[in-house]
Amino acid sequence: MCGIAGVWSPFRYDKNNDKYIHQMAAQLLHRGPDGRGFHFDTKDGIAMAHTRLSIIDLNSGEQPIHDSQAQLTLTANGEFYDYKRIRGLLTAEGFSFSTKSDSEIALKLYRKYGLSFVDHLRGEFAFALFDAKKQQLILVRDRFGIRPLFYHITGEAVFYGSEIKSLLAHPHVPSDISKKAQLHQMMQVMVPGDSLFENIHALKPGHMLIIGKAGGRISVTEKCYWDAEFPLNGEHAVRSDQQHIEAVRETLIESVALRLEADVPVACYLSGGIDSCSILGMASSIQQSPVKAFTISFDDERYDEATIATEMAEKCNADQDILRVSASDLYGKNFEKAIWYSERTFYNTLGIAKMLMSKHVTDNHFKVVITGEGADEFFGGYAAFKRDMFIHDPAYQTEAMEALLQASNRVFSGSVLAEKAVSHPAFEEVMGFTPSWIQPWMLVLEQVKPLLSETFLDLLGEYDPIAAIAYSLDKSKLDGRHPLDKAQYSWIKTMLEGQILNWGGDRVDMANSLESRPAFLDHHVTELAADLPPHVRIRNGVEKWVLREAMKHLLPEVLYNREKFAFMAPPAHTDQNKTQAIQDLIDKYLSPQRVMQAGIFNQRAIKKLYKNQDVSEDHTMKTRKDIILNHAIGLHAMNDIFMRRPATEECLA
């Protein structure tokens, strides 16, 4: 795990690029505190930087890595799994290696396969490969967007970096904030490929950019090399239940075993959910010594899962460490720091809790954790997926199922499930229905619009954020698919990368130099899961049925029988201390002067919202107000940070 940054300006190399690249790298030291490496070539106009977190090949894995014979240079962030086997095969074919790192296999695979080399890479990664012979820069991001990568392109130069703050450290990269992106962040859901800034883009998951020269200008080709594929016309894999169970079990065991590979100790995150408990159970059975398991405990029993996590830790003889997070921990400076590292707003403070946990893990001398993200996405774990299956597949329609779903998710009403059905014509056109997962955010948007200033609304014009999200989806991947497949695909392409793997994953883990490895997002696992029949993923209202059965003997009985429980921090309105803590942030960031300067909100309307926080006793409405306030505070905090160049964490002070 590392940070990468660079500039390719082949037509006119700025003599100050060396200085600028050092500035870009300095913004990524939290991603790689163990070393920095640079490559400068004024003839080719390339400048590349790498900040290193040493996990594989501690003694000789410095980057950039060069292949002088082929004139290739690589900087990589992340992990390539199964690299020892691949290195052995390539060495036997005559390729020579200068390091023992996993990253170097990408150079040799590129030499052997050309651009199809990405098909042979397994893991979570974002990297830049410069081919001096072809005068070509290749930017690649893993299949799910586990590792971040952003870029800005002009006619004469390419700028890229693991985080936006790195790009903004270069004076030639503009820092104009996008009004459309601000609106999207207020309603939680971003358009894939967009960022908070105009003309700074996130490389989409499963994509590569092939950047060359043509006619005295930069040429760019975007290529999708992988996408989640659900079978057409219900033609899912035909196996017996037992065969499905065994296939899932075998593939997951392999994925976890690969992610235990490191030259430093590897721990596990452990909540009270099936996903992380399954990971711990598998890791404990594979690893010779007891696994270290880190658990977050909240000060509200309705949201706390530590008891079940402890039962799981005891079952597999893990060494459990519980971090107790209180109301005061989730706001104030920690809230601001999470904004700084995530570079976007968040609706719930669970990301802050995870940021605190990542610090606790690194304080205990671990650099790597295996995590459970991705299981809900591919095995049908979310309540919204169940609702779409019940509503849109005639074989599953039942009022009793809907009533049970609402009752069991009441504590998450306002965020996980909408209290009423809403739809949008763009989703109806693209998917045939409006997925349940986006409906709560459509209701948030309804409440956000009256809060916006006239100037902000004028700049937005007729822009429809829901339509933009719907039309970003590849309709060819949705047509002819089962409703559950459609619901899962639409979430995978939006919320998985934009939320789960961002402020709920990499960005808050790497805030404290911690590499997280989501074993369920191994593409061998996900391809198997996507081919499972819907009734194998969700059966008789039981989500992740096949995963439960595959992991049955590893899990405590109480967890095996338990319905999915969302990992979420208690909202501000649930506790007087939290309410006061968010009020302090409101006083700082939503003062009349700040609101006027930012120009996003109508001063009177936003003041009325936070002054009337406690008027309604309805949990759903109070949760929705908490969501809006979290986003509003976050947008104003980011406005403060990124109006200063270079942006630094200290800008929040």
Report on the structure:
The protein has three domains: 223 residues, Aminohydrolase, N-terminal nucleophile (Ntn) domain (Glutamine Phosphoribosylpyrophosphate, subunit 1, domain 1), CATH 3.60.20.10; 171 residues, HUPs (Rossmann fold), CATH 3.40.50; 86 residues, no CATH class. It has 653 residues and is an alpha+beta fold. The radius of gyration is 24 Å and the shape is globular. It has 27 helices and 17 strands. The model has no long low-confidence stretch (mean pLDDT 92). The protein starts with a strand and ends in an 11-residue tail after the last helix. Strand 13, helix 7 and strand 14 form a beta-alpha-beta unit.
Number of strands: 17
Q: What is the second-level CATH architecture of the largest domain?
A: 4-Layer Sandwich
**Spatial shape:** globular
Helix content: 40-55%
Rounded to the nearest angstrom, the distance between the terminal CA atoms is 29 Å
The share of residues in extended strands comes to 15-25%
CATH superfamily placement of the largest domain: Aminohydrolase, N-terminal nucleophile (Ntn) domain
Instruction: Give the neighbour order of strands across the main sheet.
Output: 2-3-1-9-8-10
Note the total helix count: 27
Query: Can you identify the CATH class of the largest domain?
Result: Alpha Beta
Q: Give the radius of gyration.
A: 24 Å
Q: What integer is the average pLDDT? A: 92
Unreliable parts: none
What is the structure about, briefly put?
The chain is α+β, with helices and mostly antiparallel strands and 653 residues long. The protein has 27 helices and 17 strands. Helix content is 41%, strand content 15%.
